[in-house]
Amino acid sequence: MKNLFDEVKIGNISVKNRFVRSATWENMTVDGYMNEDLYNIYEELAKGEVGLLLTGYANIVKEEQPNPGMFGIYDDSFIEGYKELC
């Protein structure tokens, strides 16, 4: 029987354990860009040794944002923020 703390492989990616924080809607950005509050949330999750973190959903077309506070990723101006997050 597998243990929650066992390493698992997903394709070529090794995940240190079977704990997953699924994508959520943080509702913590006005303009879609990463900010210190968001970085802090993901840092705390990583410190808690969650094996796999999935970011919240993001709008990929500027004119189509179903919910306020969503991450954006509809042009290259978002790349640096996501790099810092990762």
In short:
With 86 residues, the chain is an alpha/beta fold.
Task: Characterise this structure.
With 86 residues, the chain is of the alpha/beta class. The chain has one domain. Helices cover 22% and strands 16% of the residues. The chain has two helices and six strands; from the N terminus they run E-E-E-H-E-E-E-H. A two-stranded antiparallel ribbon has the order 1-2. Strand 1 and strand 2 form a beta hairpin. The protein is elongated.
Biggest sheet features: 2 strands, antiparallel
The succession of helices and strands, N to C, reads EEEHEEEH
Q: Termini distance?
A: 32 Å
Q: How many domains, in number, for the residues?
A: 1
Mean pLDDT figure: 92
Oligomeric form: single chain
Tell how many strands the DSSP assignment holds. Answer: 6
* Strand residue content: 15-25%
Strand order of the largest sheet: 1-2
Structural class of the secondary structure composition?
A: alpha/beta
Shape estimate: elongated
Question: Helix coverage percent of residues?
Answer: 10-25%
Count of alpha/pi helices = 2
Uncertain regions spanning at least 5 consecutive residues? none
> Which radius of gyration do the C-alpha atoms yield?
15 Å
Q: What key attributes describe this structure?
A:
single chain; 86 residues; alpha/beta; two-stranded antiparallel ribbon; two-stranded parallel sheet; 2 helices; 6 strands; 16% strand
Please specify the SSE layout and strand pairing.
Blueprint: E1 8-10, E2 13-15, E3 20-21, H1 36-47, E4 52-53, E5 58-59, E6 71-72, H2 79-85
Parallel strand pairs: 3-4, 5-6
Antiparallel strand pairs: 1-2
